[in-house]
Amino acid sequence: GPVGGHHSHIKDNIRRFLGFGYVDAEDAVACAEDRATFWAVGELSRDRVTTVRVPIPAVMSGQARPHSLSATLAWFTPVQPGRKSYRSVRLKLLDPAEAGTLGVSPRSLQPDGNQTNRGTIFMRCWEGDKAPVVGPDMTIDLVVQRDPDPGTPIDEAVPFGLAVTVAMPGIVGLYTQVAQRLGIAPRQPV
Fold this sequence. Notes:
Elements: H1 7-18, H2 25-29, E1 35-44, E2 49-55, E3 67-75, E4 91-94, H3 99-102, E5 105-106, H4 113-116, E6 121-128, E7 139-146, E8 158-167, H5 174-182
Antiparallel strand pairs: 1-8, 2-7, 3-6, 3-8, 4-7, 5-6
């Protein structure tokens, strides 16, 4: 790495200018049979956690091919003007304990914990190509955690949104199985 072990400072400076990537809006809203995206919303009070259960479709089981689980967490935080770290509430998305069963691990080229702690939106991605072991009605728990407030404690609950995508390119039926597990029915025209 860089001389003096300043690799995290160099990564910070690069991301300040280039950001964390690009947005493909078409890909974000389009439905595909080999991918399912859904979201959860809620509020977190001080020093609390909440668990979002992600249904894993059985069609993924035993398929040794590339697949991924990605989650984007965003929240609104009260601000404290005049402070260097003016965001008064931090949320974290903990690595799922069941990631090994799904055959995924954290993507190596994503922001580290120091960088994601500074903002109010970030994405984590876990990917792999080993065959996942998926049982009937399997879920993976994504835990959203509210860290202790830096500075003056904030008692009010903080609203957040979590978008989650499960994908295995080329496996038809993934979206349908997730939709059935969630009980989503198509809208009827009026």
